[in-house]
Write a structure and sequence with these properties.
This protein has about 350 residues and is an all-alpha fold. It contains 17 helices and two strands. It has a two-stranded antiparallel ribbon. Strand 1 and strand 2 form a beta hairpin.
Length: about 350
């Protein structure tokens, strides 16, 4: 299973460069973040570092903490606070993954067995809570009340997004606006906060902080929309999970929303049977993909992602040219080109 989703000529040439420039520019700081992460997962309770490190060491790109480091550099920050803030962002993200896998009953994460499959649901939830506690401890140590406010607010919004998604689960009547509200909260909020704390800890004007926040929020939406498309048209190696997991878990993502709205009565009955009732038979995922192709649902999901990517790029226009700005712009192209 798996089909390559064509991006046609609209993908910018630099998209192929990926995030190498970003990784290179923040590598020294990222090494310090990684050391902080390892130090802060330590505990006399043996299971805590075991569960935490299973996920933390499983090969994630650590894009969110890199964005914190990059926006701090973009705003000429001089200090050490961004290291702990970046580590806090990664811990928040890891905690949400541990919790998500329990809620979604996922078996795989980043190409490996999910922590809940090895240690159980209870351990996954509690270790996620431990990481959130460590994240807030580091935020306090930085001593920036505005940064603490931004990240703690994001934690609340992410939890709201999780509950919103739970309420909308298996509901084929979900609208595009309702779905976007979920991913703004569940995914984009942490991207936005990760980018906003850089200029805030650097004491830059509100306009700079707002620009970085807008960049992160729009990048986060684009990132999630591409994930939605990849779940139906990608490859397991790209996703770090099995293709079709969203379908099997009854998740209502944008490709489904578009397909349901544009479909025939028979096609809508198909979505109700498979997603609402969970009655999935052999060949149903191929049928789902065929319906999506028929109604251009995957292509239009990617087009939506391009739209948010363009807004992310525009948000950085108030900053002068610099290598770090170029790297942040290329990161937008990387996030969208994953569907190539």
């Amino acid at each position: 299973m798996g089909v390559v989703i064509p991006l046609e000529e609209k993908t910018k040439p630099e998209a192929k460069g990926g995030v190498e420039r970003l990784v290179s520019l923040v590598s020294a700081d990222m090494e310090r973040v990684n050391q902080t992460i390892l130090a802060r997962t330590g505990s006399d309770v043996t299971m805590i570092p075991e569960v935490a490190n299973h996920l933390i060491s499983s090969g994630g790109k650590r894009l969110r903490p890199m964005l914190t480091l990059a926006t701090a550099a973009l705003c000429d920050y001089r200090g050490d606070g961004h290291i702990k803030l970046a580590a806090a962002v990664e811990f928040m993200h890891t905690a949400t993954l541990l919790h998500d896998d329990v809620v979604d009953e996922s078996d795989m994460r980043r190409g490996k067995l999910a922590a809940r499959m090895l240690w159980g649901n209870e351990a996954s939830v509690l270790v996620g809570d431990f990481l959130l506690g460590q994240a807030f401890k580091m935020m306090v140590e930085v001593g920036s009340l505005p940064a603490l406010d931004i990240l703690s607010t994001a934690a609340t919004v992410i939890a709201e997004g999780e509950v919103m998604q739970l309420a909308a689960a298996k509901d084929t009547s979900t609208t595009e606006d309702a779905y976007l509200a979920v991913i703004r909260a569940k995914t984009a909020a942490l991207f936005a906060a990760a980018c906003e704390v850089g200029p805030v800890v650097a004491n830059r004007p509100k306009a700079d902080a707002a620009a970085c926040r807008s960049y992160g929020a729009n990048l986060g939406i684009a990132f999630q929309l591409i994930d939605d498309a990849l779940d139906y048209g990608g490859q397991a190696a790209t996703l770090g999970k099995n293709t079709g997991d969203d379908f099997r878990e009854g998740k209502i993502t944008l490709p489904v929303v578009l397909s349901f709205r544009r479909g025939t009565d028979g096609e809508r009955d198909f979505w109700r049977r498979t997603l609402e009732k969970g009655e999935i038979a052999d060949g149903d995922i191929e049928t789902a993909l065929g319906i999506m192709r028929k109604h251009r649902a995957l292509e239009d999901t990617i087009e939506r992602a391009r739209h948010y990517g363009a807004m992310a790029r525009d948000a950085l226009e108030i900053f002068g040219q610099s290598p770090i700005k170029t790297a942040l712009l290329e990161t937008v192209d990387f996030c969208i080109s994953r569907a190539h």
